[in-house]
Amino acid sequence: MKNNFSHSPNIIPGISGAPGISISMAFLYSKEKLDVFDGAVENTDEAIKNLHDALDRSKHELNKILSYANEKMGEKRAAIFEAQIMILDDPVLLELITKGIVEEKKLPEFIVNREISRYTDLMNASEEYYLKERSHDIDDIKNRIIRNLKKKRLKSKLPENSIIVTSNLTPADTILFSKSNVKGFLTDFGGLTSHAAIVARSLKIPAVLGTHDATKRVKDGDMLIIDGFNGYAIINPSEEQLDYYNQKLEKLDQYDKELLNLRDKPAVTLDKKEIILRSNIDVPEEIEILIQSGSKGIGLLRTEQVFGEMDTFPDEDEQFRMYSEIASKVYPEYMIIRAFDVGGDKFLPYDIKEPNPFLGWRGIRFLLDNVEIFETQIRAVLRASILKNIKFMLPMVSSIHEVRLTKHLIQNCKEELKKAKKKFDNHIKLGVMVEIPSVAVMAKEFASEVDFLSIGTNDLIQFLLAVDRGNENVSLQYQEFHPAVVKTINHVIKDGKQANAIVSMCGEMAANTFAVPLLVGMGLDSLSTSPAAIPYIKKIIRSMSYEKARILADECLNCVGIEQITQKIDKFFKDNQIERSQNIF
Ligand code: PEP
Ligand code: MG
After folding, report:
1. Do 416 and 522 belong to one domain?
2. How far is CA 12 from CA 5, 21, 114, 226, in A?
3. Residue 399: CA count within 13 A, CB half-sphere
4. In what order do the strands lie in the sheet with 163-166?
5. Ligand 1 atom having least distance to the Cα of 456
6. Which residue did the predictor score with more confidence, 365 or 76?
7. What is the whole-number distance in angstroms between the Cα of residue 459 and the centre of ligand 1?
8. Looking at per-residue confidence, does 284 or 116 come out higher?
């Protein structure tokens, strides 16, 4: 069910902040502008007391938000608010503000505004996207203190079930709004990495962010559709649009039911070939969805993501605890821990500027240049492996040399742990991501060097076709069904298996239900995708024949055009009457 709405005049394009669909009334939320006067105080003792009262009140409010967030989102994600509380206790900031009040005899709100704005101005002037995003959180703290200095009460009463339209969301707003059963978020600013987006995703509230002008275009009470899958909103939808989205909501409802029905059934074809479906995990809370989805363990744990916002790399014990906890949750199934894939568009706790970050200091390259960080992670992974259900995988590998260097480090870590009398799985399996074309070309050699290969189509397609995976200007050139992509995947599967390695796929292509028959037909025995996509893939596998999928794959491998390939797959679905739920993930 493809729609043609993306060019309708009532569409507000943005970024998909949190998936899902909502249809409801808009509520325009604008923060009350707090005027701050440059006024004088006579009694500085009283002014300081007011300051402390306002700080205590702010702490009290944030503690309430924190305990609600702990309950709703888990401790790890709720730590955003702990960090805000810590800022309120920061002795350096407190001293600056107190000194300002005493020496300049100015109103506390004026000094608070000036001192905290100095930080946020600096953050805003930075070219670092991450810092700009964080400056909104600090602004939120500043406004909270000023509001409490003015002894105004926080207005958080909202009409139930509305869609919040606002210029920018803070994580605290997001949590408070969720108490009013908010149905969605639509904002002018904010990106995928903003805390508000992370909070919305954890709370499963659909969100479209970064629209630039939503607050100008939407009026209070307008009917809105939030399409958090495709990243746009629709103002006052036409009947056709409403029908389409109501049907989609129904489908999503059905999805929940299917999810339950298929949970305990295997992903087996009509002719009894089983495909193992595993999950890609980005945040620990997804483990619950994994369990409900009937996924068999974890095919990719993105360690650069699961620790949330990392200012520095977590230490060995913290990593050990996290990996052990997740490993025990999926036991007896296994999980593949991927070494930190930092750099590129992902977190890197160093301020480095690179002209081509995707081709730069990323993944294994960074780790081999920072052996201490790498060995800390290896030791934590080894220590967590005592249940024997952990495998270790390397990102952004481009040469056999990198694999050999890593093996050497693993051996060193094993020796150290033996000396320290710490237990680990001595036979822990090692694998590499096939996401750089050089590894695909040398699949046989890599397969002889490691235990398993996992095809990362997100990067592999980007490098094979020279198309930036995040650049919307060239998104039409990013083609999963390009014959070169299909041939390369096939080559990796065949050569990898011939050299006795397990070959699977963990890139987004595995979550594309349209691609499933081709991937299975080319011989993939396991796929790893976002846990929410698993029931859909399972449904297709359970209604197709492996033998027919093999014939389809052979035909596709003889094609020289994208269209030819997609037509053949389309025909496969039609001829075999395989129902394909809309590919919403
Ligand atoms: C990939 O590149 O396909 C992949 C799974 O890794 P990531 O999306 O984390 O780069
Ligand atoms: Mg990748």
Report:
1. yes
2. 11, 15, 36, 10
3. 5
4. 11-13, 232-235, 223-227, 21-28, 163-166, 184-187, 207-209, 15-18
5. 3
6. 365
7. 6
8. 116
pLDDT tens readout for residues 437-474: 999 999 999 999 999 999 999 899 999 999 987 665 77
Using the structure block, give the residue that is written with the tokens 């923060």: 31
Q: Which atom of ligand 1 is nearest to the CA of 506?
A: 5
Which atom of ligand 1 sits closest to the CA of residue 280? Answer: 5
Phi and psi (nearest 5°) for 337? Answer: -90, 125
Distance CA 161, CA 171 (A): 19
Closest to 284 measured CA to CA, from 318, 311, 250, 316:
318
Binning the chain into helix, strand and coil, the percentages to the nearest 5 are 55, 15, 35
Q: Find the helix or strand (DSSP H, E) in which 303 lies.
A: helix 303-306
- Higher pLDDT, residue 121 or 22: 22
For residues 363 and 243, state if they share a domain. Answer: no
Give the pair of three-digit tokens for residue 241: 């649009």
Pocket test for ligand 1, best of 193, 283, 302 (most atoms within 8 A of CB): 302
Query: What are the C-alpha distances in Å from 384 to residues 163, 266, 405, 422, 432?
Result: 43, 28, 22, 10, 20
178 closest CA partner among 195, 194, 200: 200
Asked, for residue 505, whether it belongs to a domain, the answer is yes
- Tell me, rounded to whole angstroms, the distance of Cα 338 from its chain centroid: 15
40 DSSP β-pair partners: 106
Decide if 394 contacts 430 (C-beta within 8 A): yes
Rounded to whole angstroms, the Cα distance separating 534 from 21 reads 19
**pLDDT of amino acid 584:** 44
| 2 pLDDT above the threshold of 50 | no
Inside any domain, residue 1: no
Domain limit, last residue, from 191, 220, 249: 249
The token duo for 54 is: 């306002």
Q: How far is CA 520 from the centre of its chain?
A: 26
Tell me, what DSSP letter sits at residue 577?
T
**What confidence tier does 579 reach under pLDDT thresholds 50, 70, 90?**
confident
Say what the pLDDT of residue 194 is: 61
Decide if pLDDT at 226 tops 80: yes
First and final C-alpha spacing in the chain: 13
Specify the residue for token string 């505004």. 113
CA dihedral 49, 55, 60, 62 (to 10 degrees): 170
Which residue owns the Cα nearest ligand 1 atom 6? 456
Q: Give the range of the structural domain holding residue 138, as residue numbers without chain letter.
A: 44-149
What positions carry a catalytic annotation? Answer: 195, 506
Is there a single domain that holds both residue 313 and residue 356?
yes
Give me the mean pLDDT over the 480-492 stretch. Answer: 98
> Is the shortest distance between the CB of 480 and ligand 1 below 6 Å?
no
Amino acid at position 196, single letter: A
**181, part of any domain:** yes
479's CB contacts (< 8 A; 6+ apart) are 461, 465, 485, 562
Both 123 and 268 in a single domain?
no
Q: CA-to-CA distance for 30 and 172, rounded, in angstroms? A: 15
* Rounded CA separation 297/300 (Å): 9
10 Å CB burial of residue 548 (0-12, 13-18, 19+) is middle
DSSP character string of 61-100: HHHHHHHHHHHHH-HHHHHHHHHHHHHHT-HHHHHHHHHH
Residue 564 near ligand 1, beta carbon < 6 Å: no
User: For the chain, how long is the longest CA-to-CA vector?
Assistant: 87
